[in-house]
Specification:
Uridine Diphospho-n-acetylenolpyruvylglucosamine Reductase, domain 3; globular; Alpha-Beta Plaits; alpha+beta; 8-stranded antiparallel β-sheet; about 25% strand; 6-stranded antiparallel β-sheet; 2 domains; about 450 residues
């Protein structure tokens, strides 16, 4: 198969590595070789998880076929390169929706499995892997291993959240959730500080999707102020009369594109502070309203190439999770340090997590998660993130590997205590280390210590 050697990056545009690309049309075209390989879906992981410096990257975009769809049970079997956007186009008109979806519909099923992605309903429905009924794992020797919670469960739970390092994810069988309409009833509630924000995200909205935008430049008495957002799929009787006869139809989200890189100086403490003040005022006053599913679940997808906002150098997304008992103090300490740094995070998102999943390297843990976007303007951002790592560790938390580009091996091992179990299974499935990535080598994920 022809290959192309090129410069490649993740969605954060940092780091940029030299990789050898292959684009198979069928899984049978994959022939393991001496060069380590990693699969890549649509490039929506932020750091180096789908990069392979001086190694192979297997592009799965042509491996996107529907194989079966049980319309009565809402069960889909498809190749791992199928995107959520392609799934939604088929599922919604038939009354089904992904039980868990991340914040972009451009992610592939294989990527969702590998990162065990979560959504706005983790507190209620868990993560993506909780709804995967089975998958096919293509091993380095070319053999295909069917696995599920019942069949080869060790391989299954090492692959759920395993960052694509146990083998090439082939077919995925996924259980969807029933859907009555393509619209969402949304409620925005302003929070004056972090204490009120936590109160608004607590169990009174357990049956809703919930997420919060946080003004990360607010300090002092305003620390943690933001907008708590809750939503649920609209029932037909909650729709305007014009939509009740066609509840599963919707007007597609209007998409714009950012055609060039913004100058790095555009996002600075003054511009972000002004934007945050305007956003807090406008969004906090919205109250209760009806929205299309795209604007609620995938708001950033409406601006194609939005990562260009951060300039040519790119940005680092930092997402951590902190257990319930330590969550308030931990999130408070992170926001205080961030505000003091005067490094503007244009986007700061807070969500509540439910119980820890079964994936050995899955990110979510019962508590809260905070995600930050930090422009890569100078090396000082790395020192800041090292400080945030120490704060997260003090409070018993962890960093999300699908967003990471600079975590240390020691911090990774401290954050993921089930790593030794995962490594034992990884070695059994891939004894020659044929599946590796820039992420796995940076974190020394083939080593015990």
């Amino acid at each position: 198969m022809a290959t192309l050697t090129t410069q490649l990056c993740g969605w954060g545009r940092y780091p940029v590595h030299t990789c050898e690309l292959e684009r198979p049309d069928r899984y049978r075209d994959f022939h393991p070789g001496a060069v380590p390989a990693i699969a890549r879906g649509r490039g929506r992981s932020y750091g180096d998880a789908a990069l392979n410096q001086n190694g192979r990257v297997l592009l799965s975009e042509r491996l996107n076929r529907f194989l079966a769809f049980d319309r009565e049970r809402g069960v889909v079997r498809a190749e791992a390169g199928l995107t959520l956007e392609e799934l939604l186009a088929v599922a919604i008109p038939r009354g089904w929706f992904p039980a868990v979806t991340p914040g972009t519909r451009y992610a592939s099923l294989g990527g969702c499995v590998a990162a065990d992605v979560h959504g706005k309903n983790h507190h209620r429905d868990g993560s993506f892997g909780d709804h995967v009924l089975g998958l096919e794992l293509i091993l380095a020797d070319g053999n295909r291993l069917p696995c599920s919670p019942q069949e080869h469960p060790d391989a299954f739970w090492a692959t759920i959240g395993g960052m694509g390092l146990t083998g090439l994810i082939g077919e995925v069988t996924l259980r969807l959730a029933p859907l009555e309409s393509a619209h969402v009833v949304v409620q925005h509630r302003p929070a004056r500080d972090l204490e009120q924000m936590f109160h608004l995200l607590e169990p009174s909205f357990d049956d809703h999707y919930t997420v919060a935008w946080v003004d990360c430049l607010a300090a002092g008495r305003d620390l943690g102020r933001g907008i708590a957002m809750a939503g649920h799929h609209a029932a037909p009787d909650e729709l305007p009369s014009a939509l009740r006869a066609i509840p599963l139809e919707h007007r597609p989200q209007r998409r714009h594109s950012l055609p060039f890189d913004l100058p790095g100086r555009v996002l600075n403490p003054w511009t972000v502070r002004a934007f945050n003040a305007l956003y807090y005022r406008r969004q906090g006053g919205k109250g209760r309203f009806l929205a299309g599913y795209e604007s609620f679940f995938y708001p950033l997808d409406g601006l194609l190439h939005w990562n260009r906002m951060y300039g040519k150098r790119g940005f680092l997304q930092y997402q951590c999770a902190i257990p319930t008992a330590e969550a308030f103090q931990g999130i408070k300490a992170l926001l205080e340090r961030l505000a003091a740094s005067r490094r503007p995070s244009f986007l700061a998102v807070l969500k509540r997590f439910g119980p820890q999943g079964r994936g050995l390297l899955s990110f979510p843990t019962a508590g809260y998660t905070l995600a930050l976007d930090l422009p890569l303007r100078d090396p000082g951002v790395f020192a800041l993130l090292d400080e945030l790592d120490r704060t997260v560790l003090v409070h018993g938390g962890r960093v999300y590997l699908a967003k990471d580009a600079r975590l240390s091996p020691a911090a990774f091992r401290a954050m993921y205590p089930r790593y030794p179990e995962w490594l034992e299974i990884k070695r059994a499935l891939d004894p020659e280390g044929s599946f590796s990535s820039s992420l796995s080598r940076r974190l020394a994920m083939g080593e015990e210590e």
